[in-house]
Amino acid sequence: MNNHKINIAIDGYSSCGKGTLAKELAKELGYLFIDSGAMYRAVTLALIRNDIAIDDLEAIGALLPKLEISFEYNGVLNHYQTLLNGDNIESEIRTMKVSNLVSPVSKIDAVRTFLVRQQKAIGQNKGVVMDGRDIGTVVFPDAELKIFMTAQPEIRAQRRLTELKQNGDILSTFDNVLENLKSRDLQDSTRLNSPLRQAEDAIVIDNSNLSRAEQKVLALNLAYEKIGQL
Ligand code: DC
After folding, report:
1. Helices (DSSP H) in 87-173: which residue ranges?
2. Which of 13, 106, 167, 191 to mutate to test the pocket of ligand 1 (most atoms within 8 A of CB)?
3. Which CATH entry fits the domain spanning 7-222: 1.20.1050.90, 2.40.30.200, 3.40.50.300, 1.10.40.30?
4. Is residue 103 within 6 Å of ligand 1 at its C-beta?
């Protein structure tokens, strides 16, 4: 294999395993993994913590420059942790409270401008796998590999519910998780600023009936093919 590095953009609907695949690809290739959704979740949590309403654009504009979002790999948990101004917020940003507010927050132009600028900077030197909604279209429009992931909503809801239960959530039900996914998919794909859509040059992976291992092999082969072309 040559030493050229590529950027890999993974976009798709909520809870269809984008993060899992992105993490595995990054590990295998020795690339940086960035969960852009976690960045939108971090801003959402900051608004909740500071009691700022999502239509208070002045307060949001004043808060954003004070937020420093970073990621730290925890080898014991084998998991990336999201930090907000140095504080580990990984569990808190996965709660339904944040999930229910994150789509409206991600519609705010100032929030997108603030985060997209940071995401583009991270990708400047290549060697990044980033997952989200607008990575192949807006953040890395020239990514060498773009994957668009999808899976049936019921399958996605069951996967997300299992994850929430593993994290100690006893209140969420299959129906409210499914409803949250559908509502976020609709909001994310119909918003005016950078809606979720498949980039023209993206390769679609529907993982409804694929195991984790199968989807990893599929995507890794695509990556090696692109790297080999450089
Ligand atoms: O990937 P996720 O479900 O953790 O993302 C949370 C929300 O953040 C999602 O509903 C839409 C928003 N988002 C976005 O607008 N653009 C991105 N690149 C990533 C996430």
Report:
1. 96-106, 109-123, 153-166
2. 106
3. 3.40.50.300
4. yes
